[in-house]
Design brief:
Layout (H helix, E strand, L loop, with lengths): L1 H18 L1 H9 L1 H6 L30 H8 L16 H16 L10 E9 L2 E8 L7 E8 L6 E7 L24 H9 L4 H7 L3 E5 L31 H24 L4 H18 L3 E11 L1 H12 L3 E7 L5 H8 L30 E6 L7 H17 L6 E6 L7 H15 L1
Parallel strand pairs: 4-5, 4-6, 6-7, 7-8, 8-9
Antiparallel strand pairs: 1-2, 2-3, 3-5
Helix pairs in contact: 4-11, 9-10
Amino acid sequence: MNESKNNVARRKFIKSLAAGGITGWAMLNNPFLSMASSIDPSPKNEPEFTPFNDSDPVEPNMIGAYGPWADSLYGDKPGRLSFRNESWEDVESWKKAAQNRFSELLARPYTGDTPEVKVIASYSHDGLMIEKLAWQLPYGPPTEAYYLKPEGATEPLPGVVALHSHGGDKYFGKRKIAQVSDEIHPMLVPFQESYYGGRRWANELAKRGFAVLVPDAFAFASRRVKLADVSERIRGGVVDVSPEEGEEEIRAYNRWAGNHEHVLSKSLFCGGTTWPGVTVAEDQRALDVLAARPDVDENRMGCCGLSGGGLRSLMLSGADSRLKTAVCVGMMSTWRDYLMYHSFTHTWMIYVPHLPVEMDYSEIFTLQMPSPRLVLNNSEDGIFDIGEQKRADRILKEVFDKAGASDKYVCEFHPGGHKFDRPMQESAFNWLEKWLA
């Protein structure tokens, strides 16, 4: 008990310093402290200190005895910049504050203006006009993309950025969801059967009257990290994969790239940016490319993706008001789900430092309200906790209801595991047609 009282007294003393003249003087005389002061390290709920007891039962989680403590930092109350927080009533004033903070924490790097696009090839295939494109950002190899639209279209079309998934496969990117010739890599056949019902959904969407841009994401395909460019000590004996090399060589590269994620993410932190920030910035340049085309109606643009593509859809649509609607497939849950149960199944592309005390993960999808949003979940998705998926749905409903935009949000739970199958694709296509076409 004495130790507990001492800790409580020490915490109160520190708080008294923070409330008094010492902190005020430091902030006035140190701009870095002033800048950092906007980041409040306090948990949302401040539980009373209780000494740890080895005999206390701990619900199994990813960090053991530290789980309940870390969960208390996340807390049950809405974050400071959640529209559910009772301190917010006016949607526009909340949006301005929340969007600014989200942008600040993403720490997006400079990616230039609308990039100059090179058309590598242009031809007809399967009833579509197809262009193979490339553009150079201020860093890294050129970004490659496919552009698809209905053959014979003459009027400006609604545009969609189709965002490919992660899937533990960084060798492939845009080819996971688009097919631009009769040939298909044999490794992509089972992948597309498992996750997409055997469909190249970007092609199907284009056939419905959309202009569809499918860019490679940061660290995937044309943007992947090449082994020749990294230190020899971390190559692990793996060598670069030549185009269309054998399946085992591609699998070896994908294993290496998966293990390299934590290295890449830490290096980005050291550079003052984040993996989500880089991904959002690069996807915004892809949106620039789509919006600049004369055959696209820049006032009717959206985005859609599964898994890592769903994450990109969530983040991009939270950051960019040009998107009039967005679809997040197989990637909607809560920070608690990642914290306690499933961060080990997910990519470093997710995590934005400090954001969980500002707003929940799902609430990124609300930052451009009343722009319509569709969430498609799978009820037996093994990489999420079903209870947290449903809690994310309740959070989103509460936010849209409070904003008077309940008709702009829909969530569907489909049977089965992690996927974007044909029935889910039909839901997504119908939603995009409703709000864009």
